[in-house]
């Protein structure tokens, strides 16, 4: 489920979904390449799927990428009464701290200009497996991050 929530940032732009393209990227020396050189914008637009297919794909990606307002992330519990075992609570608190440390490391690495691979040319920070354990807002939506506590589709 953690992988679902990161899809919109990439697949929400139809050009990032080559499986839906109706034409191949042309090879040099072909008629298609000559057409591409003559009118790159027109060639690109002709590669994209029709409006219905694009809209259907975007709607599906949006649904799969959206967190509900009741989402419980890894390292969180919906209720404080989930166990009365002190040892289990202590171990869970340690697990939660490990997840919060992972969040801090990801945030620090995303901010580092020395790690260009963390963002790519579009400067999109890495959030795919960002635990989001610290998020206690209860707000749903498309965040591109957060590992749910259970299967969530």
UniProtKB/TrEMBL annotation:
Transmembrane segments: none annotated. Pfam families: Lipoxygenase (PF00305). Keywords: Dioxygenase, Metal-binding, Oxidoreductase. Residues 1-153 form the Lipoxygenase domain. InterPro entries: LipOase, LipOase_C, LipOase_C_sf. One of its GO terms (biological process) is lipid oxidation. Gene3D superfamilies: Lipoxygenase-1, Domain 5 (1.20.245.10). One of its GO terms (molecular function) is metal ion binding. This is Putative linoleate 9S-lipoxygenase 7. It comes from Anthurium amnicola. The gene is LOX1.7.
């Amino acid at each position: 489920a953690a992988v679902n929530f990161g899809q919109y940032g990439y697949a929400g732009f139809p050009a990032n979904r080559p499986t839906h393209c109706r034409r191949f990227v042309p090879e040099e020396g072909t008629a298609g390449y000559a057409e591409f050189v003559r009118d790159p914008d027109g060639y690109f637009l002709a590669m994209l799927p029709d409006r219905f297919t694009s809209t259907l794909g975007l709607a599906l990606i949006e649904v799969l990428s959206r967190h509900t307002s009741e989402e419980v992330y890894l390292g969180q519990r919906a209720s404080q009464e989930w166990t009365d075992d002190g040892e289990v609570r202590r171990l869970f608190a340690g697990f939660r701290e490990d997840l919060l440390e992972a969040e801090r490391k990801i945030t620090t690495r995303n901010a580092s200009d020395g790690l260009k691979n963390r963002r790519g040319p579009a400067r999109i920070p890495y959030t795919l497996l960002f635990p989001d354990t610290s998020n206690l807002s209860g707000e749903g939506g498309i965040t591109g991050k957060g590992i749910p506590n259970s299967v969530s589709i």
